[in-house]
Design goal:
There is one protein chain. The protein is α/β, with parallel strands linked by helices. Helix content is about 35%, strand content about 20%. The chain folds into 2 domains: about 240 residues, TIM Barrel (Alpha-Beta Barrel); about 80 residues, PK beta-barrel domain-like (M1 Pyruvate Kinase, Domain 3, Beta Barrel). It has an 8-stranded parallel β-barrel, surrounded by 7 helices. Helix 10 packs across helix 12. The longest helix is centred in the first third of the chain and has 18 residues. The protein is globular and about 60 Å long.
Length: about 325
């Protein structure tokens, strides 16, 4: 049977909501560490443990690592670019002009090539590299867009010389071993060696019982899929960054293939991202969202995941109910 994995946040981090979620069959709670720190996570984890005592039940807690992130710099005022406009991306903050963007990945100039596409703000703003200098790239805006402060940068098809686990991720992993977490999700997993490195670290720090979930969300993860599945305890089809790193139209194909391989290797698999995105603000889903859940279940997903829908949405319990009903329908066939 397909189960539901929910993401913690202000919308559900209280005794009443956690009790209702447990009674609705939810058993895994995800802490998304790009949006949590250890202090706030500890507060919510302790609250969960108190709820467990009252219910006589148990939640599994999942810590989702931040992973390596590339961002633009701080802007006091957003910059609006028009389609076809050319501007610079610099890797030294003190070299940034009024209409330039700073990027905090120091090897960007070496790694990017002419005609490389750089995706800014989680893929909303695409620019093309047209010139390389010693301290900057000249890029052309492919659409008109306004860029705000500290926006995510994706470099599809470019191998970035960044560790899969950052020092902060290792520190957060230690936090997980000490505070009752049962799962860790590794963001941007690129190889089986990445998983083995985390497993060795857990063994060295009294965390060998913690299960490792590999998130497949870039081209390298797709290319090394078999060895990643073999090395992991669970797999997440993380469609957010995957859909930024790879063409959107290929994501359903990759999802089907990942689920198929996981079933062959008897590894649990989670389908995640935007499953009921519109229900963050609306009380009912779109027909497309219902179909998305339905076909994920039919393909063999062991879990379907709610992200912002339960973390910050207006209708977290309704989202769980919608998922339960769709799962029930899909499993009748």
């Amino acid at each position: 049977m397909t189960n539901i994995l929910v993401t913690m946040g202000p919308a559900i981090n209280n005794t009443e909501m956690l009790t209702k979620l447990y009674n609705d069959g939810v058993r895994i709670l995800r802490f998304n560490f790009p949006h949590y720190d250890q202090e706030s996570a500890l507060k919510d984890a302790n609250n969960i443990h108190e709820v467990e005592k009252k219910l006589g039940g148990k939640f599994d807690l999942l810590l989702d690592t931040s992973g390596p992130q590339i961002r633009t710099g701080v802007l006091t005022t957003p910059i609006s670019y028009t389609i076809g406009e050319k501007f610079r991306i610099v890797v030294k903050e003190n070299k940034r002009g009024d209409r330039d963007l700073f990027c905090d990945y120091p090897k960007l100039i070496n790694d990017a090539q002419i005609d490389s596409i750089i995706k800014i703000d989680s893929g909303l703003f695409d620019v093309k590299v047209i010139e390389k200098g010693s301290e900057s790239l000249v890029v052309e805006a492919l659409i008109s867009f306004t860029v705000g402060s500290r926006r995510h940068v994706n470099l599809p098809g470019i191998h970035c010389d960044l560790p899969t686990l950052t020092p902060q991720d290792f520190d957060d992993t230690l936090f997980a071993t000490k505070n009752g977490f049962s799962h860790i999700a590794m963001s941007f997993t690129r190889s089986g060696k990445d998983i083995q490195g985390l497993r060795d670290f857990l063994k060295q720090n009294n965390g060998s019982q913690i299960k490792i979930m590999a998130k497949i969300e870039n081209q390298e993860g797709i290319g090394n899929l078999d060895e990643i599945i073999d090395a992991s305890d669970m797999i997440m089809v993380a469609r957010g960054d995957l859909g930024t790193e790879l063409p959107l139209e290929t994501i359903p194909v990759h999802q089907m293939n990942i689920i198929k391989k996981c079933k062959e290797k008897n590894k649990p698999v989670i389908v995640a991202t935007q499953m009921l995105e519109t229900m963050i603000t609306n009380p009912i889903p779109t027909r497309a969202e219902v179909s998305d859940i339905f076909y994920a279940v039919r393909e063999g997903a062991d879990y379907v995941m709610l992200s912002g829908e339960t973390a910050v949405g207006k209708y977290p319990l309704q989202c769980v109910e919608v998922m339960k009903k769709v799962i029930e329908q899909a499993e009748k066939l």
